[in-house]
Amino acid sequence: MTQPVEEDECAVLIVGAGPAGLLLACLLARRGVEVRVLERRTAPAISSRAIGLHPPAMRVLAELGLEREAVALGERIRVGRARCRHRELGRVDFARADPRRPFVLALPQALTEDLLARHLTALAPSALGWDWEVTDLRESARTVALTARRSEGGSGALHLRAGLVVGADGSRSRVRALLGITSAGRDYPDTYLMGDLSDPAGAGSGREALVHLEPGGVVESFPLPGGLRRWVVHTGRTGTDPSPARLVALVRERTGTVLDPATTTMLSAFTVRRRTARRLLSRRCVLLGDAAHEVSPIGGQGITLGWLDALELAPLLARHATGEPVGALDEDPAWCLAERRIRRRARLAGAVAGANTMLGRPAGARVSALRALAVRGLLRTPLRHMLAWVYSMGWVRSR
Ligand SMILES: Cc1cc2nc3c(=O)[nH]c(=O)nc-3n(C[C@H](O)[C@H](O)[C@H](O)COP(=O)(O)OP(=O)(O)OC[C@H]3O[C@@H](n4cnc5c(N)ncnc54)[C@H](O)[C@@H]3O)c2cc1C
């Protein structure tokens, strides 16, 4: 039986409708660029995954006119508190980091993606194609030829010719592999259990981030919309049974907080890596988001980083699409400068996330007591404002 084959062409093709690909597509569509996004999933995601949108991410949403809606959907976290053995070590106040946006917004990734997908569809109704997995890519001097197939066993193939291709297809990027680009980095020995459960403090009260630096390992929690709270628990080097009962038991054992496992809406066990692609550019393709750089999710900077990449690349892609001649991207000084900036931000974010990851490791009683003392001392000095600035990615403005 012959498969139905479709043929198409566009100025810019984005592979992957995660937060980075969708945001870039919106920025390009707003500039009138003929953009298409191919996504292998057959429908929008429903999992909450990443939740932290830092002030630089909110500035990007403001540029799209979506900030107000995002804030209405999410939960504003203005304060983070550090604790150890039921004692408060101190607090970090995000208000000083960006006076216009004195918070980190907690918005589940599915809601963030939905917001962007709706916006993209309003700007360019046929831009987003679900259920297309890109399987092949060939670059020539002026265009890129791509092949995609239906993802879930459906028949059909798509042959698409694009002026430029953006690989926004996540940490295990197919585009990166097809371009022969390797990545370098490290696997951390840390494992975590993460879950969203009803917030025992209730919606509207106690909506602060909590970081318990306990001898058994860190327990972090963040308020979510809908009266939920995200819990992230360090589970040593080998991990643990990924069940709601186990998560609830660990939280109770280390912090004394009693949770109801029956209220779990999401549960996930994860390991942590840090990776950067050895190059982000080829002749006519560019990588962004997790395809370009993966940082430890401890610190929650992944989405914001990808969006800053998109902001960096949108004017360059638009310039190409409006007809200004562009040679090989990897030989163009403007593109190479953008690549250096993206790599620099990823290095900084990766270092912060790495430090966070190490700070939360299990420690013997003595080391744990010293760690608590040091954190307590630090949070009593003006250096706590510096910490708020670092955690809310205030350093992005000072590039
Ligand atoms: C368990 C977990 C928890 C996390 N928690 C946080 C957090 O709290 N805060 C935070 O900031 N970050 C967190 N992250 C990281 C965050 O989710 C990522 O940084 C973010 O999703 C990266 O966005 P992206 O668009 O670059 O890639 P992705 O979100 O990975 O999107 C890539 C998209 O490409 C699609 N795709 C892949 N291959 C193809 C192909 N061949 N053809 C077509 N489509 C393709 C995928 O289906 C996917 O939709 C977490 C990650 C995990 C796994």
Q: Give a short account of the largest sheet.
A: 8 strands, mixed
Going by helix content, strand content and strand pairing, the class is alpha/beta
Looking at the overall shape, the CATH architecture of the largest domain is 3-Layer(bba) Sandwich
Shape: globular
Q: What letter string, H or E per element, gives the SSE order?
A: EHEEHHEEEEHEEEEHEEEEHEEEHHHH
| Spatial separation of the terminal alpha carbons | 56 Å
Number of helices: 10
What is the strand arrangement across the widest sheet? 6-5-13-14-15-12-16-18
What is the CATH superfamily classification of the largest domain?
FAD/NAD(P)-binding domain
Number of domains: 2
- Ligand identities: flavin-adenine dinucleotide
The whole-angstrom Rg is 22 Å
CATH topology of the largest domain: FAD/NAD(P)-binding domain
How much of the sequence lies in strands comes to: 25-35%
Q: Look at the structure and give the mean pLDDT.
A: 92
- The low-confidence runs, each spanning 5 or more residues with pLDDT under 50, are none
